[in-house]
Structure formats: C-alpha cells, structure tokens
Amino acid sequence: MNQPMPPMPPPPPILVSTMNDVPGYRVVRVIGEVFGSTVRSRNAFSDIGASFKGMFGGEQAGYTQLLNDSRFEALGRLKQNAAGMGANAVLAMRFESGDIMPGSTEIAAYGTAVFIVPLDQQGPGGPGPGGPGPR
Q1: What is the model's pLDDT at position 55?
Q2: pTM for the complete prediction?
C-alpha cells in the first residue's frame, strides 16, 4: 500500500557556502564530492491550471513553491550526506536541475565536503597547513 514518507530529520549543523573558502577558517581536510537530490512532479490538475496561467502571463505560484521546497529538501539531504562523511562544511555548493521524464524534475545540490577549523586552531592530525590531507 502507498504509505506517506516519514518527515526528514532536521539537517545537521553543516555550514554550506557557495564560496570556495570561509573567511576566518581554513580547510584542514578535503573529504570529497557530496550530493543531495530530490525528484518532484506536480499533479495533473495543477499542470492544467498552470498551462492556463501561462497563456495569460504571470507567476505560476504553485511551481515556484514546488521549486523552493525541492531546493530545501535537496539541501537537507546534502547536509545529511556531508555529516555522514565526517564533514562540518560544504564549499562551492551549487544547484542543478533537469527533467527526468515529462512532468518530473530532479533538483540536485552538490559541492565539496570539507572539515574546517578557525584560523587560530589546529585541525585534526596536528599542526601544519592543510592538516592530514584527503582521506
């Protein structure tokens, strides 16, 4: 039977930035690529209403909300995956979207999972620029 999906747990406290570095911090370990994605579709009745709205112009608020919700879901999954890899930050984060099939769109959040520390603090593995390196 079709059971509703349980709600996602709150994302862990992972710093996510579109920048390649974080002012006041240094990267002590680059863990690797990390992703979070979701595939969403609207129901047929919403699509019909949106097509009428599209003929006359104006914002398609239902699609705007769907895209916004999808981005937050993908971002939450990115944070969960980064935490599972041992990261405390994701740098160079980007969103990408694409059609999976007519009416279904994937929203992906991706970036580089890293471990950062304040500039005045040693990273795991002792002193030195960059810490222990990739693992």
Answers
A1: 54
A2: 0.71
